[in-house]
Amino acid sequence: MKTIITQLLLLAAMPVAAQRLTVAKKTVDCGKVAYEKPVTATFELRNKGIRKLKITEVKAGCGCTKVEYPTEDIPAGDKFTLRLTYDSRQLGHFDKSVRIVSNGSRQPVYLNMKGVVVEDLKDYSASYPFAIGELLTDRNEIEFDDVNKGDNPVQDIYIMNAGTKVFTPNMMHLPPYLSAVVTPERLAPGRSGKIEVMLNSAKLHDFGLTQTSVYLARNIGEKISNDNEITVSAVLLPDFTGMTGAQRQYAPKMKLSAETLDIAFDGKSKKTEEIVITNNGRTALKITSLQMFTSGLKVTLGKREIAAGETTKLKITAQRDELKKLRSKPRVLMITNDPDKPKVAIEVRIKND
User: Fold this and answer.
1) Which stretches within 19-155 are classed as H helix?
2) Quick check: 314 and 277 in contact, CB under 8 A?
3) pLDDT at residue 10, rounded to an integer
4) pLDDT means over runs of 10, the chain (353 residues)
5) Distance CA 235, CA 252 (A)
6) CA–CA distance, 330 with 346 (Å, rounded to integer)
7) pLDDT at 155
């Protein structure tokens, strides 16, 4: 008798247990929305039961919101959407809800949309084209060009809080040769600020290119990712300021057949071009550093030391698929002992196939 009662109880419970209404995200934050410009939050739901699901009642919290939902039965395992639209006719923060009654849950399911209605919703994309969530920036890369030992140049990054919460922006993973100051320390919604990034060139060890990545966080403790990465490059040059006029007369003089390369792949995956380097000076030309600013390039130099009157070839191979992924200009950098050209940057320009 006890076994029969247990089985009956299980059968009675099956319709509710087998029909489950699940929601991917119960609250949608709409952020800032414009006054009298209706905003819609879309919710993803699913019938995870083994029987059809029927929504018997949907009730919004107030008359300022409208609800769209399927009125037909939802087959087992199917996903569906519910849209809640707020008319945005009142300035300030809003938090609107909708109540759902169905045969897929014992208790009603509540969904919420929230945000803040502002009188003037500005578009900051022209001044701040890069986004780290709701923290906008005017750049995502920094270059310290033509730096001499002992220089301490500063580059500025301008930021804007386009969200609804206060941020405490900070730079993470700074190497020893970089420092950063953020003003103001707390950035209120709708406010702009500035990050001063300073280079201590005395802590750079080698002439030529030094590259790294730092990460701009909206708040202290935020995780790093490609989304908040800012690339930093510095080019340290040899100092020829103490060279006399007589010494310059006997110095090497570099001449290039081209200082930019226009490469058309013509359907190929890679393409190689050559640049002829000539030493028109009276002493040997030395190329002490040969580097690339980005991936996607391979270089081969005939020789690093070129006697007076001689030439050599620089071969540059561009790889199409790698270059398509870049957000920086592909360039090849050479550091030389020519006092008039201590740094040569060859820009590689890719023509569309």
Assistant:
1) none
2) yes
3) 46
4) 47 50 91 87 92 93 92 93 94 93 91 88 80 92 92 95 90 96 90 94 92 94 91 93 88 95 90 96 95 92 96 95 86 94 92 69
5) 21
6) 9
7) 96
Sign of CA dihedral 126, 127, 132, 133: negative
Cis bond before residue 330 (omega within 30° of 0): no
For residues 219 and 272, state if they share a domain: no
How much is the pLDDT for 19? 55
- How many independent structural domains does the chain possess? 3
What integer pLDDT is reported at residue 242 of this predicted model?
85
**What pLDDT, on the 0 to 100 scale, is given for residue 119?**
80
State the pLDDT at residue 204: 93
Task: State how far the Cα of 252 lies from the Cα of 266, in Å rounded to an integer.
Answer: 38
> Does one domain contain both 265 and 203?
no
- pLDDT at position 122, please? 72
Contact 308, 283 (CB under 8 A): yes
Helices (H), 174-307: 245-249
User: Which residue, 163, 91, 100, 77, is CA-closest to 128?
Assistant: 163
DSSP state of 74: B
Residues composing the chain: 353
Q: Which two tokens stand for residue 196?
A: 């001063």
Q: For residue 184, is the peptide bond before it cis, meaning its omega torsion is within 30 degrees of 0?
A: yes
| Structure tokens, 74 | 């939802």
**Is 78 among the domain residues?**
yes
CA–CA gap between residue 109 and residue 22 (Å, rounded): 9
pLDDT of residue 124: 74
Asked, for residue 8, whether it belongs to a domain, the answer is: no
Q: Cβ-count burial of 339 within 10 angstroms (0-12 exposed, 13-18 middle, 19+ buried)?
A: middle
| DSSP-derived secondary structure for 143-177 | EEEEEETT---EEEEEEEE-SSS-B--EEES--TT
189, 204, 237 - which closes a domain: 237
- For residue 304, give the nearest of 291, 317, 289, 323 by alpha carbon: 289
Q: Which residue has the tokens 């006719």?
A: 89
- Look up residue 224 and give its DSSP letter: P
Least Cα distance to 196 among 152, 236, 163 occurs for 152
Which residue range forms the structural domain that includes residue 275? 245-351
Angle at 338 between CA 317 and CA 202, to 5 degrees: 90
